[in-house]
Specification:
There is one protein chain. The chain has 567 residues and is an alpha+beta fold. It folds into 3 domains: 113 residues, no CATH class; 125 residues, no CATH class; 198 residues, Jelly Rolls, CATH 2.60.120. β2 and β3 form a beta hairpin. α1 packs across α2, α1 runs parallel beside α5 and α1 crosses α10.
Length: 567
């Protein structure tokens, strides 16, 4: 069955997950492929990571607590002076009553689970973890440790734990690719070498929550850049904003500066910073009719941010070197400028393809990186644009398609909203905008055009009040300026950054952005000779697109010949 431009079928998913094994079969190395499949079966039993997520439920009345009680859960209450197991739970008027017991040792494992940056569990812990219900009444102290009687209103929230299927499947997928590439089995996420970078977690008063990666694509020191991460809904905790920047990958990360940007703007407006750090306001972007470069309708996947993404996965014809989507906007009036608003991220597949590309350097990969560190920034960026690795944007004029700008790499760990101001052709009933990408390098979830004028905003730049390493070592003065005094993070290290809340104009709405400047290196080691002839082809525009398409086509053909797996 052919895949539509905006659907990702189960067969396609398994094509990606098992592509490395399929390549071995294709190359005639069936024995090696079978060995790897056996290894996968073994690894499935204990080497991959299982992830869970925390689901919080406020207690607003007495209706949802009995429902939890009847589900045969293990209740744990968090009080100011300790944690206890609750039995015989009952609601007496407006009070919660229960018998209390000391927690057994095996139940202490996940007592602070909601605050863990990486939420993983072992298979043998599954029944314990998913049976627990955590009630938070941390403003309450008790004297009697055998009986509990507290107002229902003192319970701020209830946490339960659920399996995070998406991250768990992703972890298994990474392991498969790790076996094939000869790297560590626990690779972390499959990413573009332009992708994973420092991972940002924000603190909500109870736990650190993953937000996104930052300065993705800055894989050489010559590509050091500033990223502007939107922080929708972030609230201060005790007048502080707390962040954790973690290195979860086989990378060496160099953080130059971290700032919190507070943008004051009018009520009813939204604001985003473009890739240059320029703020733009917007209200209600209009939707488009949209077709791919084979004239197939894809607008249904771009009207809302709903996970129904366009993958740039169509087979390009002679009209375009890349996957593309053309957006047609009905213009009401003679507007000559507008703002393209999108929600997108780099794809999972792009990570695998970039690993394949990096492996072509063989044992000389680290030497190549050292050379690129000293290379001309504009030359490297132009090469990336020639390969349509960033998300390229064009506007149709009377002279044809004119390049406007590009959306920078986001990494493939999380999508984000992005904005771009455009010069639009005058006196047009319809305006056409084209977005291009190398084959399956991006997932485009939403695209709209805002025609409202930019309104005045006020930007405030906050420097960190405290910076500490993972061992709580203070780092005064670090990351407060772009002074090349980098905070260096090696694998599994992190840094905590704290900002003090500042007084705000109550007549304005405020949006927050985390500004981070830095770069990183992929520290994976590749083996073998440099494939000079293959690499030389990448000097030609569009080669990466064909490389990605070829890899994917090969995997699909192998499946079509009967190499199947249970779904």
């Amino acid at each position: 069955m052919l895949m539509t431009p905006f659907q990702f079928t189960r067969r396609d998913l398994f094509t990606i997950l098992f592509a490395p094994v399929l390549f071995l079969f294709i190359k005639g190395k069936r024995l090696k492929g079978l060995i790897i499949l056996l290894a996968i079966g073994i690894i499935f039993t204990g080497c991959f990571k299982n992830y869970y997520r925390v689901v919080s439920r406020p207690i607003t009345d007495t209706t949802n607590l009995p429902a939890l009680k009847n589900s045969d859960k293990y209740f744990i209450v968090h009080l100011r002076n300790g944690f206890y197991h609750l039995k015989n739970i009952r609601v007496n008027g407006s009070n919660l009553e229960a018998d209390m017991q000391t927690l057994p040792p095996e139940r202490e494992t996940f007592i602070m689970a909601s605050q863990a940056p990486s939420k993983t569990y072992k298979s043998r812990q599954r029944s314990l973890l998913f049976s627990e219900v955590h009630l938070y009444a941390q403003d309450v102290s008790i004297i009697d440790t055998t009986h509990l009687s507290i107002p229902m209103s003192s319970i701020s929230k209830v946490n339960i734990y659920e399996k995070d299927s998406g991250k768990t499947i992703g972890s298994y997928a990474l392991g498969f690719l790790g076996v094939y590439l000869g790297a560590n089995l626990l690779l972390g996420l499959i990413i573009l070498a332009t992708c994973n970078c420092p991972q940002v977690y924000t603190y909500d008063g109870n736990q650190y929550n993953f937000k996104s990666g930052v300065f993705s694509g800055a894989i050489y020191s010559s590509l050091e850049k500033t990223d502007y991460l939107p922080l929708d809904g972030l609230q201060s905790v005790n007048n502080k904003y707390l962040f954790k920047l973690a290195n979860n990958q086989k990378e060496e990360q160099f953080i130059n500066q971290v700032q919190l940007i507070k943008v004051a703007h009018g009520a009813g407006k939204k604001v985003l910073l473009d890739r240059h750090g320029t703020p733009h306001t917007y209200t209600k972007p209009i939707n488009a009719t949209a077709v791919d470069n084979l004239s197939r309708e894809v607008a249904g996947s771009l009207g809302n941010t709903d996970g129904n993404v366009y993958l740039f996965d169509q087979q390009s014809d002679l009209r375009s070197k890349f996957g593309s989507v053309v957006l047609t906007f009905d213009m009401a009036g003679s507007k000559t400028d507008g703002k393209l608003v999108i929600h997108a991220k780099n794809s999972l597949w792009s990570g695998y393809v970039f690993e394949e590309f990096s492996s072509l350097f063989g044992s000389n990969y680290s030497s190549w990186v050292a050379k690129q560190d000293k290379a001309d920034r504009r030359t490297i960026e132009q090469w990336q644009q020639d390969q349509a690795l960033p998300l390229m944007v064009y506007v149709e004029t009377d002279k044809g398609w004119v390049f406007a700008d590009y959306f920078p790499f986001t990494g493939n760990t999380a999508g984000r909203d992005m904005i771009m101001k455009l010069d639009l052709p005058a006196n047009k009933t319809n305006v056409r905008i084209k977005i291009e990408s190398a084959y399956m390098f991006w997932e485009l979830d939403y695209a709209g055009l805002d025609l409202s004028p930019d309104e005045p905003v006020t930007l405030s730049y906050l420097d960190a009040s405290a910076v500490t390493r993972e061992n709580y070592e203070p780092m005064p003065g670090k990351v407060s300026a772009r002074d090349d005094a980098y905070v260096q993070l090696k694998e599994d290290q992190w840094v905590n950054v704290v900002f003090e809340e500042t007084s705000t104009d109550k007549n304005k709405t405020h949006s927050l952005f985390l500004s981070t400047t830095g770069y990183y290196h992929n520290t994976r080691r590749y083996t073998g000779k440099t494939q000079t002839a293959a690499l030389y082809k990448f000097r030609k525009e569009g080669t990466f697109n064909n490389f990605s398409k070829s890899k994917y086509k090969t995997a699909r053909e192998a499946l079509a010949k009967g190499i199947t797996f249970p779904y």
